[in-house]
Amino acid sequence: MLKARILTVLLLLPLLLGALFLLPETGWALLMLGVMLIGAREWSKISAFSGFQGWAYVLLTLFIGLALLPESSRSANFVLYGIAFLFWAFLVPLWLRNQWRTRQWTIMALIGWVVLIPTWLALVELRTFGPGLLLGLLAVVWIADSAAYFSGRKFGRHKLAPAISPGKTWEGVAGAFLGVTLYGLAWGMWDSSSLPFNSGLWRGVLLLWLLTLFSILGDLFESWMKRVAGLKDSGRILPGHGGVLDRIDALTAAMPLAAFGLLLKNYYAF
Q: Would 184 disulfide with which of 20, 205, 245, 246, CB 3.0-4.6 Å?
């Protein structure tokens, strides 16, 4: 499994970096929209949609994406990021704590859009601040995930949420925060002015911790939804990783938060 995970990363990472730094804005937006459509298809399976419902959901997601593609209003994006922030900061912790279950079509469809659409918009908008910044933010989530995986395997004794994701431990969480802290310190010492929100070294690290916390919520939420659906993975498109949602689950919570914060700082001066 680990070998397959590493080989998949070695194959996809150069393609991602090439697209991130070389594609024009529209090309990047369409590429990320394609990824979200695969995620929408996987979400339809997690939601137990029928075959017709599932493809209709993907088609509606495509229409929403195309409708937002030419959108130049940051106010509209700000509202969507705000909805995502409220969802992840308040509703998801309650959802996980109470282990809610639902198979109501409209509720699952709306949740899927709250998870996917702001993530897509964030990946597109954050790139406009610079591909390097977006890569740096993506690395926060990747480092947190990898550090949690390896520290959990090595030191994991105390389960984080056994009813939701039995493999996750508090030691893994500690490893994630340690890994992100070291990454943030290295980033800040290299160029503190490029840290997210231009907030200085230690406040920048604190903000990276917040992204890490949200990434853990994203991971746990998708794990719970798969558990309710009786699925181990959201799909099989990525060997060693499962589906697209398995790979971007942490990003769905962290990236809208990053975009929300940047809009607040740079355009709304809150």
A: 205
